[in-house]
């Protein structure tokens, strides 16, 4: 009986250890699990609201940052240690974003709040919980603001896990994609510096007193940096530069009258004698040479120059997305940087590396890219 009791206790402890490991790994995209999470593969779910594209961004508000306990404690997931941020520091990061949906809808997040796949939220490994983050998709220029209330994604190369709605508004539902994130600090919220007007961020500053205006004039708000100081109530001035004048000695009344009077013409004065004209013989002109033909424009590289096997890293609607991934790949694999090229064809911008002489050589590049960037490139052939 004693041996059976010990065996049962050992089995129970092992089960608890597995449950804790699964719970901690829950924030890994595609492997989350926990209370309320459905089993099976993740996805968009059923009965999706039709107006998700009109869901407003998260509205940043000042929330206390915990410096100890709870979500601020160091933790370890899948053998890797993480140290959460516990102060109000700025934070920027570029990398791959993913999203999670119905499998975790209504499940408890790391902050204890239920996950709502239709809200504007996200998961991050080290940012304070909660935090507000601006997320930008460089492929199309779209931006959203989300509230970070969960931990994850615990997959190498991924920096943020977005809610279904946030991914929808950024056009990221087709899979993982490069993004840029920037934390909105409590100081940014306090001053209003997080707000954008036509893509420009303005810090909230005391409003300057408006200048006097005429009763019939319309009031137009202009940023103070665009307005040059002018003298108030000054008459219109010429735009010509004013030359400093040399001080003049006081004149007698007779001199003043003489200077004010128009000059008298001397009718009988003889004009100055003309100077004789000197003509110099010029050397005969050389015959004009035939016009030089304009240089022929450089011929575009033929398709034969690109023939061979290429490794495609990604395809984008906007060229900015391809260029962003190109920069990231060049940093990750400097030896491959000279072979990276963006092909723009039929409205699609494809980032490819090559050409390679054989499919086997291209396959080696695929392995390097997969290991360094955590993406899934494929081999294509150009003829």
Describe the overall structure.
- The chain is an alpha+beta fold and 383 residues long.
- The protein has helices at 2-24, 164-170, 186-191, 253-260, 319-332, 359-373, and strands at residues 75-77, 80-82, 92-100, 121-123, 131-137, 142-150, 158-163, 177-184, 196-197, 200-201, 308-316, 340-345, 348-356, 378-382.
- Strand 5 (131-137) and strand 6 (142-150) form a beta hairpin.
- It is globular, with a radius of gyration of 37 Å.
Q: Let me know the largest β-sheet.
A: 6 strands, mixed, barrel
Could you state the order of secondary-structure elements as H and E? HEEEEEEEHEHEEHEHEEHE
Reading side by side through the largest sheet, how are the strands ordered?
Answer: 3-7-4-6-5-8
Cα radius of gyration in angstroms: 37 Å
Helices, by number, come to 6
Fraction of residues in β-strands: 15-25%
In terms of structural class, how would the helical and strand content be classed?
Answer: alpha+beta
- The oligomeric state of the chains shown is single chain
Mean pLDDT: 73
Measured between the Cα atoms of the first and last residue, the distance is 75 Å
Brief write-up:
Helix content is 19%, strand content 21%. It has helices at residues 2-24, 164-170, 186-191, 253-260, 319-332, 359-373; strands spanning 75-77, 80-82, 92-100, 121-123, 131-137, 142-150, 158-163, 177-184, 196-197, 200-201, 308-316, 340-345, 348-356, 378-382. It contains 6 helices and 14 strands.
